[in-house]
Structure formats: structure tokens, C-alpha cells
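Inverse folding, one chain.
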């Protein structure tokens, strides 16, 4: 994962956003599929993550979730967070109005 600060559009602000670039995946991270009978599947690569069937009256859903989900984003390690900067610095927080 590569982190890049975006500079603000005005001269009085030193930081305006953040870009996180991830390595290119070999295929789509999550792939939704639908079938007859109001059925849906959510797959990640060859593994199925989620099965669902929508009621005919569209007022409910029965679903089954598997334990095979893998996040496409690597967890942020504490060493990476500490390298960004100290609390209170522009690279740490930005007020949202």
C-alpha cells in the first residue's frame, strides 16, 4: 500500500486529502451474481462469500454468509501510522466542516 497526501486548493491549507494506492488485483475483489428465483451470490475469486434469496413479495431476504471473506485492503500497521506523523499535525487530522 502506498500513501500520498493531496495538497489543498488554497494557499492557507497545507493538506487537503489522502490517496491510498493498492497493488493491482488479478481480478475483481468482490463479484455479485444473480440468478432466477430472486437468488444472489457474492463471490471473491473462486470462493463464495454470501448467498441470498429475496422473498417474492420483496419484503424480506434469507441469507447465508460463509467464513471465507478476505479483505482486499491490507491492515494498517502501527509502524506505518507512527511514520505518518504525530497527533495534531496536518498529516494526522484535518477538521471537517
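Residues assigned per position:
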Amino acid at each position: 500500500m502506498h500513501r500520498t497526501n493531496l495538497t489543498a486548493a488554497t494557499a492557507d491549507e497545507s493538506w487537503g486529502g489522502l490517496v491510498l494506492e493498492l497493488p493491482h488485483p488479478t481480478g475483481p475483489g468482490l463479484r455479485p451474481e444473480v440468478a432466477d428465483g430472486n437468488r444472489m451470490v457474492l463471490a471473491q475469486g473462486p470462493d463464495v462469500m454470501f448467498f441470498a434469496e429475496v422473498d417474492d413479495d420483496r419484503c424480506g431476504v434469507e441469507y447465508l454468509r460463509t467464513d471465507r471473506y478476505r479483505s482486499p485492503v491490507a491492515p494498517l500497521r502501527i509502524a506505518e501510522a507512527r511514520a505518518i506523523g504525530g497527533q495534531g499535525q496536518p498529516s494526522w487530522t484535518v477538521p471537517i466542516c
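The chain has two domains: 1-22+73-97, 28-70. The first strand starts at residue 2 and ends at 6.
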